[in-house]
Design goal:
This protein is mainly β. It has a single domain, classed as OB fold (Dihydrolipoamide Acetyltransferase, E2P), CATH 2.40.50. It has two helices and eight strands; from the N terminus they run ββββαββββα. The protein has an eight-stranded antiparallel sheet with strand order 3-2-1-4-8-5-6-7. β1 (about 1-10) and β2 form a beta hairpin. The radius of gyration is 14 Å and the shape is globular.
C-alpha cells in the first residue's frame, strides 16, 4: 500500500482534479463533484493497494477498484470498474514510481487491478445521491 496527499487543482464542469507531483510526474485523480461533500475538500489522502481484499477493510470516504487499460511514458492509466455512471472517481493517471512495490517496469508487469481509497478530514459526509445508496 502507498499513500499520497493530493491537493485540488483545476476544476471541470462536473469533477475536481486532485494532483500530486511524484518524482517529477503528476499524479492526477478526478473525483465527480457528486461524490464530494458540500464543502469540497482542498486536500485528500489517496491510498493505492493491489491487495483488494485487505484494502476493502480500510475505512475511507470513497473506495473504488480500478483496472489497467494502458501504459503511458511516465504514468499508468487506470479505469474504474463498472458502468461509467456509477463511478465514484474518474480515470486516474498514476506515476509509475507511485505504484506499490514490487511493481516496477524492470521486475514485472504493472498491477492489472488496484484498490483506490480516498479520505478527507474535517468535512461532511458525501452528498446522498440515490445511485450511491445501495453500496
Amino acid at each position: 500500500m502507498t499513500e499520497y496527499v493530493l491537493v485540488v487543482g483545476k476544476p471541470t464542469d462536473n469533477k475536481l482534479r486532485y494532483v500530486k507531483r511524484v518524482d517529477g510526474v503528476v499524479f492526477k485523480l478526478y473525483i465527480p463533484k457528486a461524490s464530494l461533500p458540500e464543502t469540497e475538500p482542498k486536500r485528500i489522502t489517496v491510498c493505492i493497494d493491489p491487495d483488494l481484499e485487505q484494502a476493502e477493510a480500510r475505512p475511507a470516504d470513497i473506495k473504488a477498484v480500478v483496472e489497467y487499460p494502458r501504459e503511458h511514458s511516465e504514468t499508468i492509466h487506470y479505469v474504474p470498474r463498472g458502468a461509467k455512471e456509477t463511478w465514484k472517481i474518474g480515470e486516474p493517471y498514476i506515476p509509475k514510481t507511485a505504484l506499490p512495490q514490487p511493481f516496477t517496469a524492470s521486475t514485472q508487469p504493472w498491477p492489472r487491478q488496484l484498490h483506490i481509497a480516498v479520505s478527507w478530514e474535517g468535512h461532511a459526509e458525501p452528498r446522498p445521491f440515490s445511485r450511491f445508496l445501495d453500496e
